[in-house]
Design a protein that fits this description.
The chain is α/β, with parallel strands linked by helices. It folds into two domains: about 5-185 and about 360-375, Rossmann fold; about 200-355, Rossmann fold, CATH 3.40.50. It is built from 15 helices and 13 strands. The chain has helices at about 30-40, 75-90, 105-115, 130-135, 140-150, 165-175, 210-215, 235-245, 260-265, 280-285, 290-295, 305-315, 325-340, 340-355, 360-375; strands at about 15-20, 45-50, 65-70, 95-100, 120-125, 155-160, 180, 200, 225-230, 250-255, 270-275, 300-305, 320. The chain has a seven-stranded parallel sheet with strand order 3-2-1-4-5-6-7, with helices on both faces. α7 links the parallel β8 and β9. The longest helix is centred in the first third of the chain and has 17 residues, at about 75-90. The chain starts with 15 loop residues before the first strand and ends with a helix.
Amino acid sequence: MYNLSNYGIFTPMSAIIYFTVTNDLSYDQRMIRICTSLANNGYKIILVGRNLKRSIPLVPQPFVQKRLKCLFSKGKFFYAEYNLRLIFFLLFKKMGGICAIDLDTILPCLFISTLKSTKRIYDAHELFCEMKEIVTRPRVYKTWKRIEKYSVPKFKKGYTVNQIIASEFKKMYNVDYNVIRSIALMKPLEVSTTKEKYILYQGAVNEGRSFETLIPAMKEVDAQLIICGDGNFMKNAQKLVKQNNLENKVMLKGKLAPEELYAYTITAWIGITLFDAEGLSNYYSLANRFFDYIQAAVPQLCVDFPAYREINSRYEVALLVSDCNTQNIAVQLNELLVNGELHERLRQNCLQAREIFNWQNEEKNLLHFYKNIFG
């Protein structure tokens, strides 16, 4: 049991906010950034997530962290169990507000906020129902869409990662959501002149990230691909590596703690931000890793979708590709590997863009949003 009095100067209950996710808190850099910014500005923050068998010990943060254990680890039984456990956990907690992170915890947050007459917020990192792994499964899509249609209109306050997605929510549910992008914290950067020429993918290893074409493309690329992350496509990724005899060329590192992942990011030669066109969530995305590579001054191969195109037209931090087939990926990766002039130009543009696209600037929008709600 935790005691809020251990977390700094006492503030009224109106400033105690619960944030709810279904993932492991240790690896959620986005939520660590958001909760840290709010905690550092006087809010009492409790971040609730999931305890997995392979969960590493939590790192102390300026906010409270709570993990819930579940018997099930995936599928409809997991979501049902986690939502019930979350409701019972929150039922007797005092709070001034509650924030559902994406659709998979929205029902408990709606129930608790209604029961307690407290403020509720929706943090929509993506168009949840339009993710490839959902939109391609009609029965799963129907279930989540019913949850979305029922819940989202009741969350009048919310934010998402770009204006395109915010406009979609306005069109679908007549809610006016703010834009708070998921941008990396700017740290002092020492750029090595002796970087090893490896290619890095960091993030969720999920369906719709073009691994079906990226991994085979590595047969024609004279560099190593390092994949840091885990997700619902990991087993398929492992099979693709074996089928293409790329065990010595494609390294699957799994989930890494933020500090360990950052060490890979800052020494990479090329970053990868690719998506399939199937599913509006991919097409309208603005991924965390896009900004992680910018902050690390790492040129990237990036899909030519609207949000990335708009930023790249101003700063040119990436080589954009409109066709993510195997041959085209190989050609473009090789271009970034051998064309020193192109690589250096993109790197220098990253060094300029990181002064604009950093969490120090973006958190101002976050703090303004919460101040308007909680005063």
